[in-house]
Automatic annotation (TrEMBL):
NCBIfam families in the record: sensory_box (TIGR00229)
Keyword Transferase: yes
Record GO terms (molecular function): ATP binding; phosphorelay sensor kinase activity
EC number from the UniProt entry: 2.7.13.3
Histidine kinase domain segment(s): 467-687
Keyword Nucleotide-binding appears in the UniProt entry: yes
Protein name: histidine kinase
Domain (PAC) ranges: 134-186
PROSITE patterns named among the record's database cross-references: HIS_KIN, PAC, PAS
């Protein structure tokens, strides 16, 4: 009820005013002041009481809302009816059970189905007569047709006139429970009609009952209807009776397999055994396992990396081939694809794996990390591929001071990707679910392509050198002879003598360049023999030692005593080592023009193992000026040099790499500009059979 306004309360107060009230004019000033003070105190007291009442009203309203929510949104139905079952009030769940909106429940009855109407009548009557909480189970009719099994818990309550004429009922839907009970009762009533074995066994294993379908098992066990179970099954009976829990075991019978459920009967000393023929299921599982094994064997045996990522680009599957990158599959599962992408290729791959234009708000990862190709952009679901570099996991180095080459830190790969979809539950097409793809290592292929290009260049150089060699050398020899005659007939320290000397020096430079061109374009066929690598390196350094000491270069020579001998050409390898020492000398003099404690050239040699093959690793490590990063990949290109034109032809490292390659070895250049340069050469240790094969090839070439 809405409260009265202040004006209404004031008028009512005036009407209730006692007519015998003393008039104000008959009161003294002191009495008036006293009365005014009391009125003010009374007014403040009334205001305080009003505030307390307001707070209490707010709390009551909050509690009312809370209990109203609990009432309306309860998982069971609450009904208030009269003695005839007319619905006076219900919650939302109750209205939902009856299939009627709550606002339309006026003059509606809580009605049981025809067969259960007497039960409901007696339930209401007993509830009103006893005043106790009463329970019953019956079927309630649903508006528009249908019914459900319900558990009714009712209690009579008084109305506003203290008359017990109302009933509050809690209704719980027990349809599922009743159906389960009916199913169980049906199985119990008709065990003989059950196509699966059903048995009842006493605690000692004695068979109390078995249906016809159990005869196959009993015959296999060599038992009878009134016999006993095998000892293994008697133990299971004892265990389930002790634990009170069901236990399922598989039993093979001739060509069939049964799943036997041992179900203990509470407070009884026997167990029911329910059998289910699972032969087809076992065969299907076995076939599935074989298929899965074949699939896994195929996937794991493929040398390429097979991967699967979700719609945001995080790995969900990787085969064992990912170990070639130094990772275990479980290490990358849950990681983003960008974990293994070379930083310099992120933007390249970003342009390839573009996010759908219609979904600009889709976030796959950080802005500086590529996002994945969403094939909703192309309903043809075309497969895409891209070449890029991957970065393997940094492996734990050995305690040796030998560094792995830079090329081992980057792998050139071809990435293939195609999207896969799953059907939506609402049958409105398919939802993009992620991507499948293959990562193929094309590092060797790229190297072969580079080698082919380089071979083509060298072939062109050789052809040019062969054609121009005689045309250049003949006039150069003439020029040198004439200049020598002029120099012989001139006095020293004259201009003519100096010019003649310059002509001879430059002519020799041209002749040397022509010879280098021919050497770089021809495959070296020097005589190979049993070679002690220590002597070869030491002899090369001894030839340069006077110049190195003159330049104040500190040489550190460290060759392991167990370094094995190799099979190669002494002259060719010495040419390589002399060229590397010359390059180191130039780099150190550029950085340290004078004497310095860091003006060091380190030469080391150790035995290593690569893919179970023995190699000798030779390292020339100078602390010189280094090579800029953007020029590092060009160091072995013919005619490319970081030296001034007067100090280098650009053919030294190119020829050195060719010689190492002809020895079935590998040469790698590492450098940090301003700090160091390191040349790493790996030469194979060959056995007698391999040497004979090489000798045969050399003889064929000759």
């Amino acid at each position: 009820m809405k409260g009265k306004t202040y004006t209404d309360l004031h008028k009512e107060a005036e009407l209730r005013l006692n007519p015998d009230t003393i008039e104000m004019k008959n009161l003294s000033d002191e009495e008036v002041r006293s009365l005014a003070h009391e009125l003010q105190v009374h007014r403040i007291e009334l205001e305080m009481q009003n505030e307390e009442l307001h707070k209490a009203q707010v709390q009551v309203e909050a509690l009312l809302r809370k209990y109203s929510d609990l009432y309306n949104f309860a998982p069971v139905g609450y009904f208030t009816t009269n003695e005839k079952g007319l619905i006076l009030e219900t919650n939302l769940r109750g209205a939902s059970m009856l299939g009627i909106e709550r606002s339309l429940l006026g003059k509606k009855y809580l009605t049981a189905v025809k067969e259960d109407q007497d039960t409901y009548y007696l339930h209401r009557r007993k509830c009103l007569e006893t005043g106790n909480r009463e329970r019953c189970e019956l079927r309630i009719a649903i508006n528009g047709g249908g019914q459900f099994f319900a558990l009714l818990e009712s209690i009579a309550v008084q109305d506003a006139g203290d008359n017990i004429s109302r009933i509050r009922t809690l209704v719980t839907d027990i349809t599922e429970r009743k159906l389960a009970e009916d199913k169980k009762e049906g199985l119990a009533r008709f065990p003989e009609e059950n196509p699966n074995p059903v048995m009842r066994v006493f605690v000692d294993g004695k068979i109390l009952y078995s249906n016809m379908a159990s005869m196959v098992l009993l015959a296999h066990w060599g038992s009878r209807t009134t016999g006993k179970l095998p000892n293994d099954y008697i133990k299971i009976v004892s265990n389930v009776l002790h634990s009170g829990l069901n236990q399922v075991v598989e039993a093979e019978c001739d060509s069939c397999v049964f799943a036997l459920t041992f179900a203990p009967i509470k407070k009884m000393d026997y167990v029911n055994i329910y059998g289910l023929d699972i032969t087809e299921r076992k065969q299907a599982v076995k076939a599935l396992q074989q298929s899965e094994m074949q699939y896994r064997t195929l996937v794991e045996a493929i040398p390429d990396i097979i991967y699967k990522v979700d719609e945001n680009g995080f790995f969900t599957f990787l085969n064992n081939s990912v170990r070639t990158l130094g990772y275990k599959p479980e290490e990358l599962i849950g990681s983003h694809f960008s974990t293994i992408v070379h930083p310099d290729d992120v933007k390249l791959f970003n342009s390839f794996m573009s996010v759908l234009d219609h979904y600009p708000s889709k976030v796959t990862c950080d802005n500086d990390i590529f996002s994945f190709y969403d094939e909703r952009k192309n309903r043809g679901r075309d497969t895409k591929n891209q070449k890029l570099r991957l970065v393997p996991k940094v492996s734990v180095k050995s305690k040796s001071n030998i560094h792995e080459p830079n090329e081992s830190k980057t792998i050139f790969c071809e990435i293939t990707v195609t999207g896969f979809y799953c059907d939506k539950a609402d049958d409105k097409g398919s939802r993009f679910h992620g991507m499948l793809g293959i990562i193929t290592d094309i590092t060797d292929k790229m190297k072969m392509q580079v080698e082919m290009v380089r071979a083509d260049k060298l072939a062109l150089i050789g052809e040019m050198a062969a054609n121009l060699s005689h045309e250049i050398n003949n006039p150069i020899n003439g020029i040198m002879n004439c200049a020598q005659l002029i120099m012989d007939e001139s006095k020293k320290n004259t201009r003519l003598y100096k010019f003649s000397k310059i002509i001879i020096a430059e002519s020799k430079r041209i002749a040397t360049l022509t010879k280098s061109l021919l050497n770089s374009s021809r495959r070296a066929v020097g005589q190979k023999s049993h070679l002690q690598i220590y002597e070869t390196i030491y002899h090369s350094l001894r030839l340069m030692m006077i110049q190195l000491k003159k330049d104040n270069i500190i040489v550190k020579f460290n060759i392991s005593k167990d370094t094995p001998d190799i099979y190669g050409s002494f002259q060719e390898l010495q040419q390589v080592f002399l060229n590397l020492v010359q390059n180191a000398r130039y780099a150190l003099n550029e950085k340290y023009p004078g004497k310095d404690m860091d003006k060091i050239l380190e030469v080391s040699c150790n035995k290593i193992s690569i893919s179970d093959n023995q190699y000798v690793r030779i390292i020339f490590h100078d602390h010189g000026i280094g090579i800029p990063d953007n020029l590092l990949n060009k160091t072995t290109t013919p005619f490319f040099t970081t030296k001034p034109i007067t100090k280098g032809t650009g053919l030294g490292l190119s020829i050195s790499q060719r010689i190492v390659y002809n020895h079935d070895g590998k040469m790698v250049v590492e450098s940090v500009y301003g700090k160091f340069t390191k040349i790493i050469i790996d030469l194979p240790v060959k056995n007698l059979k391999e040497r004979n094969s090489d000798e045969s090839k050399n003889s064929d070439n000759r």
